[in-house]
Amino acid sequence: FKSLPIITQYWFGATIVITLSVNFNIISAYQVMWSWTNITQSFELWRFITPFCFAGGFSFNTLIACYMLVQFSKQYETGGPFNTGAGGGTADYAFCMLLGMAFMLASYPFLLGLFALPPVFCKNLIYYVLYVWSKRNPEAQANIWGFPMKGIYLPFAYLMLTVFMGNPYIDMLHGLVIGHIYYFLVDVIPVVYGKDIVQTPQFLIDYFGVGQYEPAPANNNAGFGGGAAGGGRPLGGAAAAAAAAGGGGGAFRGGGHNWGGGGQRLGTN
Predict the structure, then answer these.
(1) Which is nearest to 137 in space by CA: 235, 258, 48?
(2) Is the pLDDT of residue 9 over 60?
(3) Mean pLDDT of the chain
(4) For labelling, which of 38, 74, 136, 232 has a CA lying 20 to 30 Å from the CA of 31?
(5) pLDDT value at position 116?
(6) Parallel, antiparallel, or unpaired: how do β-strands 141-144 and 147-150 relate?
(7) Residues 206, 7, 2: CA angle, nearest 5 degrees
């Protein structure tokens, strides 16, 4: 668990805690669902976060959702997210997540009258990350149930499989659409119109640094050796700083990432 990158680690940890708490009746499912009325009238601010950390009741689908959360989030976070000002690093991924969450909450009231969309968005956010990853790594080799394919086709393969099996797919579709909106803002508009609309806020860059964030190791001699204890160390150095200065979605495009390699398979016989 501690080997996971920081955003994935906290998201996965919160999902496990909240999902288990609801299933063991420590808290009720209603307490973690999205409710604008409860936020405004009862000041239940945790509802901005908890709907994205409840994966569902005990079932095989919930187990698969937790597995996908770790795999997709880790792949995108460590593989070089779209560069929106922090060199394609952790701060950019944190802002990507915040934007996705905000878009989902803002669009939910408009979709509620048209579709049976539950007020929990964990799976929506998982497929949002999957779609963004697929656009970032279109040539990456992936597989689903042993069938190899390019990363760009993976979200649609999951969608078709879900529809074919007769499972609910509106939450998945919601995440994919929001993912496409994010991709359009950070990659299409900068290339076509030459404008960087999405910019990672400075407070995220100050906290996570430029490039990939790595917690600083404990330094017991900080008081004597001149090293500062605590905080974290952004990876990437001068190259990442130069990439951050360039901005836009075009940086860090080299390389691809294999999802599902090493014998991993998703599905049942």
Answers:
(1) 258
(2) yes
(3) 82
(4) 74
(5) 82
(6) antiparallel
(7) 115
Only one residue has tokens 């997709």, namely 72
- Determine the average pLDDT of the residues in 107-118: 88
Q: Phi, psi (5° rounding) for residue 181? A: -60, -45
| Each residue's pLDDT tens digit, 138-171 | 989 888 878 889 999 999 999 998 898 888 889 9
pLDDT tens digit sequence for 13-67 = 999 999 999 999 999 999 999 999 999 999 999 999 999 999 988 888 899 899 9
C-alpha to C-alpha distance for 238 and 223, rounded to whole angstroms = 28
> What SS3 string covers the chain?
CCCCCHHHHHHHHHHHHHHHHHHCCCCCHHHHCCCHHHHHHHCCHHHHCHHHCCCCCCCHHHHHHHHHHHHHHHHHHHCCCCCCCCCCCHHHHHHHHHHHHHHHHHHHHHHHCCCCCCCCCHHHHHHHHHHHHHHHCCCCEEEECCEEEEHHHHHHHHHHHHHHCCCCCHHHHHHHHHHHHHHHHHHHHHHHHCCCCCCCCHHHHHHHCCCCEEECCCCCCHHHHCCCCCCEEECCHHHHHHHHHHCCCCCCCCCCCCCCCCCCCCCCC
Integer Cα distance of 25 and 7 in angstroms: 27
Structure tokens at 199: 């910019």
Token pair for 203: 């407070």
User: What single letter denotes the amino acid at residue 13?
Assistant: G
Measured distance CA(221)–CA(227) in Å, rounded: 8
